[in-house]
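Example record

The entry below shows one chain as it appears in the dataset: sequence first, then structure tokens.
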Amino acid sequence: MKAMSFEDLCQGNSIRGVKISPDGKLISFIKKDVDGEQLVFFSCDSLNRKKFICKRKFTNIVGYLWSYSTKYILLISDPLNNGMWNIHRYNVYENKIDKEINIDNCQVKIYGIDKKVDSAVLGINRRNPQFFDIYRLDIENWKMELVYKNDSYFRLIFDSKHRVRLGCKMNTDGSYYIDNIEKKVTMTKIDTNDFFGTFPLCITSDNQLLLRDSRNRDKSVISKMNLDNCKTNILAFSNRVDVDESFIDPVSGDIAAVAFYYKRKFWKCFNNETESVFKLLQSFNAGDMSIVSTSSDGNRWIVEYSNSDYPLQYVLFEKKEEKITLLLNEHRDENKDLYVKKQAIVTENSYEDKILCYLMEPKTYQNKGLIVFLHGGPWQRDTCKFIYLHQWLVSKGFYVLTINYRGSQGFGKTFLNAAARDWVKVLNEDIVASTSNIIKEKRLDIKNIAIMGNSFGGYLAQLGITERPDFFTCGISIGGVSNLGEGLKSYPVYKGFQKDIFKIYISSDDSEKVCEQSPVFKINCNTSSLLLIHGINDPIVNYRESVEMIQKMMTKDVNVLGVLFSGEGHSVKKIENKIHNNNSHKEFWVDERKMCEDCEVKFFCTGACRAEINKCKDYEERL
């Protein structure tokens, strides 16, 4: 059986950000190609769906919102992939970018669009990098005024008129307060172990705070808090998992449905009308469903379907007519027999914690080994969604295993907080143990096991090849931390609230413990081979982390290959760099059987990579 083409891998995920205009007449999405990203539009009503395309291309579109008049789109770009954003006004009628605000050395957020006066509510952290001041931007006249100076709150909550009502204030111990800014009183304190399980979502039409809430319980529920007396009413819960996402009715402004995600996503609806609509939508496609955009009258919806063995699909749902029309997907007919379903497997660690994993088995008879692919965060989780890289690896003859290790979000705060302060234990007791259990249960004939991940998953990959070279033949780290202490120092200021939590999770007050959990200090002659991939503009994990790891491994004569990308940030976004990146994967373990046959094949930094490292040194000295 043929493998998925290299072009399909590099050009996958080329469609995102699908939205419908407030008047329900136009559909927009972000399209990526080798030259960059641009907005594409087409009419909901035209029979041939004729497209028109924004002439300007961007390196990276962070996000965008329609103005209520539908004449304009506000778009945020990150030209250098370094977390420094600009805001642009795209004139839909004239098909051009006609206004821009270059916001040097800071970030901008679009909190919402005011329906009555067609103005945008923006957050900009120019004055203080840690906190976002609130501005109101008159979209038509392109005038901006400061409406709230923020000196305390890492998160702000607005009402339906986009007035600042509530704020979340961080404490150094990882707890935080929810304050009623309007009344200048503290409503409640959220403890440290509830940081990821409890946070405000929005203020509903009945003037109550909608909360994701883990206080006094293990699993997060969806609840409403009365803003006057702070009494809380639980709306929906699951005994197995946390609440995952919610759907707010665009007309009533109140919550209409909530989703939970264990092996797959399941929805709970709060009224009969929503329930009948969701049943109709779920009958169209068996994938995990999300409503990603709606018209302001609530009649037209953009619905996304996610399947493990099929690329994302988007449909237009017309509520009054009960009509569903397929809009967009990235599927290619020649690949339909190549895609593989993910098998959900639940195993246990030594503490009898349930560890949810997803396994993909190759359809070919080639058995090149197993790749353990770990998510980042660490407060993220793996789901049953389609991932091009996983499908490509499976089509090449690899088994792919993803693991929701302790520290993953979605399985309750006890499970999430159990990982704090000892990631070596998580590696051995969750990742290694789960992999071994699944190999045994499935009776897989596996000789070589690789470990791979992005961001914190990249850190765990580095930890795997240094702590357990007896188990992992090689590893790939993309934007991963090598030195936890240095990683904490370079953590971006605008994510300061997460930094306080991260300090707790790595025991930053215990230097010996930090060193014990930092891969750069664990390298020896037995360390397995490693491929390190990093963007020089990475604002989250400094590229020097990978440079230091490369240099230390070279001094120990350990197999290492490093690839550093200029113009890239915390992930590889440009298609030409994706091609280089994926070529590195091929060079490392696919084309020349480099799944490291007992480390007989040496992987030293290439001359080009050494030159890049020296360039980085010069760049660092100039800074």
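Notes for this example: Residues 423-441 form the longest helix (19 residues). The longest strand covers residues 119-128.
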